[in-house]
Amino acid sequence: MSIKKHIVKATIVILLFSVLGKLFGFAREIIIAAIFGTTSLTDAYFVGLSVPDFFREIISGGILTAVFIPVYASFIQKNESERSLKFINTISTALALIMVLSVIVFMPLSGYLVKVFAPDLTEPAFSTAVTIAKIIFPATIFMGIASFYGSLLNVHKHFVAPALTQLMLNLGVIAGVIFLSKKLGVYSLAVGFVAGAVMQLLVLFPSLRLRELSFKFTLQWFSEFKPMFYLWGPLLFASVAGVGIDLVSRALASGLDSGNIAALIFAGRIRETVWLFCGVPLGTAVFPFLSSVHAGNNSQEFKKIVDFAIRITVLFALPFSLFTVIYSKPIISILFERGAFSSFSTEITSSALAFYSIGALFYALNFVVIRIYYSRQDVITPLKIFSIGFVLNLVAGFMLRKYMLVGGVALARSLTDAFCFIAMIIMLKPILAEFKVWGVIKNILQILLISIISLLPLYLVYISIHLPAGLFEKLVFLSVAVFFSVFIYLLLCKLFKVKELDSIYNLLKRKIFPAGVLPQ
């Protein structure tokens, strides 16, 4: 099987479990919205969560993956199994110690950190956010270690268990709200989050045991650590800038009325659907292949994988993004408008979603493209680009918030995502001599045209009629819109001979149908 077929197969596996995880994620958000609405309590929870999650992300998120995976992939490429095992045990030991130390140092500083992350939060919400941050901080230890071992399993082309980790986190939060909300109120979300973090690590144990990747406390020096440390510093700043873009948006929303942070987060969860379904599966699947191909100095194959990864992300993410732009209000109404989530909550959340979704394609693409740089151990370029993006988001957010409120904050983030993608694509040209930037732009314009034609008929119906207020009627209309639009989109992709769709079709044909059932 070719590398492209392996990538498509791995992407489909991750996508299936991502869909399952996202369904539970929607269930989590629906329950939170129904019980707490867009209020200062919900604001407090999301701000409190963002404090420990910030440190988890910069310690064990993209940084660790970018520095560790290419080195480990080179060990696998050279069949150095014993050395690779000692290497990963050393990394995991160091990670566990660093995560514990970060909790000890930063948890007592939660009050100061909340003030930095959301400077305009009201006093009651501030106190609640500080308590929630302190409850959640220990969970980052389990999440950090689970993230490390999940990346490790991906190198071994094992994608199922790592894809289940997000599902476990969602189940924990849902259980916390259902069983503890009457006694603990909004703090039940934090307790459920901690339980879900523990389950994230537990769900990986069977796969780790199968691969004989059990943890052993080891601290040993490797010559590869020196270049890794050189990468660590710039990558740390790049990660801070990347995560900081989200934090800037939340800080800007804290200067608006109570509930706008929650509206921004709920809208962001829908935007993350595009990222989770179209960016994460492919970015996760393609990264080990890119690292292995780069370690083998196969530049031609590397360029082909890069081109394929970008094109297939655009194929799925662009129509998805456009759909959420034009149907933002019924989507929010169907998902959240019940209980404490009022019609006003729907208005502000759908405004944020519409402007967030403009940049959802680039948000998904950035997850894929940044891993192209990481596979080459180039962290300087993303550092420069996301640092500029951080400033752009801050300046644009301040300017647009004044006139467009929470929608302006969301639009500033979309403009930032678009800038980061364009900059990273342009900077690929010098390192991949035959990479065609115009080919990427042409592909995006082609898929945009197909998407518009696919969505236009029912969108004209949508704006010309008064959509019934009932949940069932809205759900039926949106379901018809999805089915009809997808059918037209796939048909047009076939007529326009979009080759990435053929790659997926051929793989599914071989896996699902016996030979001879479908025409060649």
Reconstruct the topology from this structure.
Elements: H1 3-36, H2 40-60, H3 62-77, H4 81-106, H5 110-117, H6 123-136, H7 139-155, H8 160-184, H9 187-202, H10 205-210, H11 225-253, H12 260-295, H13 299-326, H14 328-336, H15 343-358, H16 360-375, H17 380-404, H18 406-431, H19 437-464, H20 471-495, H21 499-512
Helix pairs in contact: 1-8, 1-12, 2-3, 2-4, 2-5, 2-6, 2-7, 2-11, 2-12, 3-4, 3-7, 3-11, 3-12, 4-7, 5-6, 6-9, 7-8, 7-9, 8-9, 11-12, 11-17, 11-18, 12-13, 12-15, 12-16, 13-15, 13-16, 13-19, 14-15, 14-20, 15-18, 16-18, 17-18, 19-20
Overall average residue pLDDT: 81
Radius of gyration: 23 Å
Which residues sit in consecutive blocks of at least 5 with pLDDT less than 50?
A: 511-520
Total strand segments: 0
Strand content: under 5%
| Largest sheet features | none
Q: What proportion of the residues is helical, as a percent range?
A: over 70%
Question: What structural class do helix, strand and pairing data support?
Answer: mainly alpha
SS field, number of helical segments? 21
Dominant shape: globular
- Distance between the terminal alpha carbons, to the nearest Å? 18 Å
